[in-house]
Amino acid sequence: MSTIIEAHNLTKKYNGNTAVEDLSFDINKGEVFGLLGPNGAGKTTTIRMLCCLISPSSGTAKVGDYDVTDINGSMKIRKMIGLVPDNVGLYESLSVVKNLEFFGRMYEAPMQVIKENIEKYLKMLDLWNNRDQAVGTFSKGMKQKVAVVRALVHDPDLLIMDEPTANLDPEAAKTIREVILDLKKDNRTIMLNTHNLDEAQRICDRIGILKTKLLAIDTPASLERTMYGRKTEIIVENINESIVNAVKLEHPLNIEINGDKMMIEMKDPDRDTPSIVSSITAAGGRIKSVSETRASLEDVYLKLVKE
Ligand SMILES: Nc1ncnc2c1ncn2[C@@H]1O[C@H](COP(=O)(O)OP(=O)(O)O)[C@@H](O)[C@H]1O
Ligand SMILES: [Mg+2]
What we know:
Blueprint: E1 3-14, E2 17-28, E3 32-36, H1 43-50, E4 58-63, E5 66-67, H2 71-80, E6 81-84, H3 96-106, H4 111-124, H5 140-152, E7 158-162, H6 170-185, E8 189-194, H7 197-203, E9 206-211, E10 213-218, H8 220-228, E11 230-236, H9 241-248, E12 254-258, E13 261-266, H10 269-282, E14 287-293, H11 297-306
Parallel strand pairs: 3-8, 3-9, 6-7, 7-8
Antiparallel strand pairs: 1-2, 1-4, 4-5, 9-10, 11-13, 11-14, 12-13
The site of magnesium ion has 4 residues, from helix 1.
């Protein structure tokens, strides 16, 4: 799999305060990658370093074939990326189309390409009929959609979005998530910052959890699985010590007992659950139910971020 972003030990200090520390990760081409973390975690700082808007205090990153710390590279990188920044930064008195054409020209894309993309993406985001209206008359959600279109006018392979759905109503947020998934189908790579777990889980192929340092990075499913292990919940009507001892003989990783509920953590529940169930029955336990429970991404996130 080829990578489009490779960050190596990126570190940013503001007046001696470390905002991002020793951050290394790769993003593969065609992937939707989410950087998840609380306010102040360093998400925006990371994006600004990747987009060459600020320079790292140490470490570096490659975007495509170019290095963010190289002055010639940084010009190339800025054209490669479509950025949706954390504040939309549009010209309020200009119309949607005038805004988009202005920014498109800054990327030095051919006017024909700019015009085609403006039409395509404004239609996709349901703003085509508002194209001649001044941006200043728009709601926050509409402005955010215009910022998304602006990031796409020059056909970038890589879209970087800083909390694209923050403070949007559910409908506007959903539209933006759908556009992200459409762009993925169109072979673009998308990196987004979010503090919205549910959103990260729904649209990201992989997630990095950031709190100044990178705490974990994996697919949402693997994060849930590996951070906690899988647990089987067995409800036994008449739990007693000999039943618990019978379970212990099966070498579970951990057992918690709460009333008639046993939470049993094991390496491989598919393999181990049947023999544990048999030994409970053999020890005289009456089993009422057996179910697998998994940690949610929220459990994983809160555990990591609190530690
Ligand atoms: N320009 C700046 N000058 C000084 N401190 C900054 C600046 N930008 C961000 N910070 C600090 O760096 C830390 C990370 O901020 P930021 O990257 O904006 O986090 P996030 O986007 O995850 O909320 C915060 O403590 C913030 O106060
Ligand atoms: Mg931010």
